[in-house]
Design goal:
The protein contains 14 helices and no strands. The chain has about 450 residues and is mainly α. The chain has a single domain (about 50-440), classed as Up-down Bundle (Cytochrome C Oxidase, Chain A). The longest helix has about 35 residues, at about 340-375. The protein is globular.
Length: about 450
């Protein structure tokens, strides 16, 4: 994500740090979000924990949750609530940590906020967040329930502080061309804060209201917290991943898409809580329109320079699965006779929405950002990127074909096979990602 005002950030030697997505045929429009992640000489206030060291440490957190998914995937026959655990390891563990870390970083880059003198506040928020996540995971899979409620409270507090920090940065900042991205982040955080109490309630209460709470919790968190963040980030990250100029239509599409998403989220939340299927489906339709606006602009950028990396193709494939999931979700909501049936059927939506969209966008974004964030010069960045791009056509093809087969009405053995292929694709990302995070650059 980029800022549009002020000079391009430089390294310690005064040289620009990398390519920049630009609007139109003129000169580049602002600093590259990944370039902002690449450390040259650390600022005076940032010497205690350098930017590369910070991202090396925080990068291990979502990677750890993804690695735990592999363990749970192989051990699921003997684990209680293994499916619930897999979903929350991905969405609550890996994705939430990645969003909190990178949205704070990119918001600072977009708004030209000064670098923090120390990382103590950010580190404390992440500790609080992950204490809460671990408590929720433990309670949801084995109990006790009060631990899950306490954990949900800790997650709520960490996200509320994160929201306050972003809002304060936005208030203090000078006008920035791409500030709409930060507005997406604020709306996403508010959505998560609305969804957390419903999840905590479901840990302790099992009554007739539970199906509606489940639908509200899942939709507000997945489409609010995750999808809003992705659509806001896509504005500047996508042309940067492609190493091309931002098309003129990208920013207007993002500006028009945000109110559509917010209106869609309100309709969806009210429709699922009150079990009004038509307003809920209308909310999904508004989200689909906003996503299509962003994807049309992304397609125009891709025509300038076609995708040629794991990061680009993984993100592109994930966006395609988002449209599939939104359409399938709307069909299931409109055809369900009651909220309980809709809640039971929602599991089939989680495959394209969680595995197809969320997981692929997360892996694609990290594959591009982590090599840049760890610094060490162009040669080191290229070497890390090459590791994460290794065998990318096979990985992207295998993962997406496995998802397609899994969604077909096939027997248990094909589903087991496709599940193993998906785990293999995840391992092919995790192994090089761990290597680059655990290998320090001289």
């Amino acid at each position: 994500m980029t800022a549009a005002t002020g000079p391009t950030p430089t390294t310690g030697r005064g040289q620009t740090t990398g390519p920049t997505p630009a609007t139109g045929p003129g000169p580049t429009s602002g600093p590259d979000p990944a370039a902002a992640a690449r450390p040259g000489r650390a600022p005076a206030g940032d010497r205690t924990v350098g930017r590369a060291g910070w991202h090396r440490r925080t990068g291990l957190v979502p990677i750890g949750y993804l690695a735990a998914m592999v363990v749970v995937g192989f051990a699921h026959p003997v684990l209680p609530q293994s499916r619930w655990l897999l979903i929350h390891l991905l969405l609550l563990g890996a994705v939430t940590n990645a969003i909190v870390v990178w949205s704070a970083h990119f918001a600072a880059a977009i708004l030209r906020s000064p670098a923090p003198a120390k990382r103590g506040g950010e580190a404390a928020r992440l500790v609080l967040l992950n204490l809460g996540i671990v408590a929720v995971l433990a309670a949801g899979s084995a109990g006790p329930r009060w631990l899950g409620v306490a954990g949900a409270g800790a997650v709520f507090a960490a996200v509320a502080i994160h929201l306050g920090v972003l809002a304060a940065r936005l208030r203090r900042a000078l006008p920035a061309r791409f500030a709409v991205t930060v507005h997406y982040y604020l709306a996403a955080a508010l959505a998560l804060l609305a969804g957390i109490p419903a999840g905590a309630w479901m840990l302790v209460v099992d009554d007739d209201v539970r199906p509606r709470l489940l639908l509200f919790h899942a939709h507000v968190n997945l489409l609010g917290w995750v999808t809003l963040t992705v659509l806001g980030t896509l504005l500047t990250l996508w042309p940067t991943v492609l190493r091309t100029r931002m098309v003129d239509s990208a920013l207007p599409a993002a500006v028009r898409g945000l109110p559509l998403c917010i209106a869609g989220l309100v309709c969806l939340g009210a429709g699922t809580l009150a079990w009004w299927p038509v307003p809920a489906a209308a909310g999904l339709a508004l989200f689909a329109v906003a996503a299509l606006l962003a994807m049309v602009a992304a397609g125009a950028a891709a025509r300038q320079r076609p995708p040629a990396s794991f990061a680009a193709w993984s993100i592109a494939a994930g966006l395609g699965w988002l449209l599939v999931a939104l359409a399938w979700d709307a069909v299931l909501l409109l055809s369900a006779p009651d909220a309980a049936t809709a809640a039971d059927r929602f599991g089939s939506v989680l495959v394209p929405l969680g595995g197809g969209f969320v997981a692929q966008v997360l892996l694609g974004a990290l594959s591009y950002l982590l090599p840049m964030a760890l610094g060490g010069g162009p040669a080191a960045v290229r070497a890390r990127t090459a590791r994460l791009d290794a065998h990318w056509p096979q990985r992207v093809t295998m993962a997406n074909l496995a998802l397609v087969v899994y969604l077909l009405p096939v027997g248990p053995y094909p589903r087991i096979t496709t599940s193993l292929l998906l785990l293999a694709a995840l391992v092919q990302f995790l192994v090089p990602a761990l290597r680059i995070l655990l290998t320090r650059t001289r």
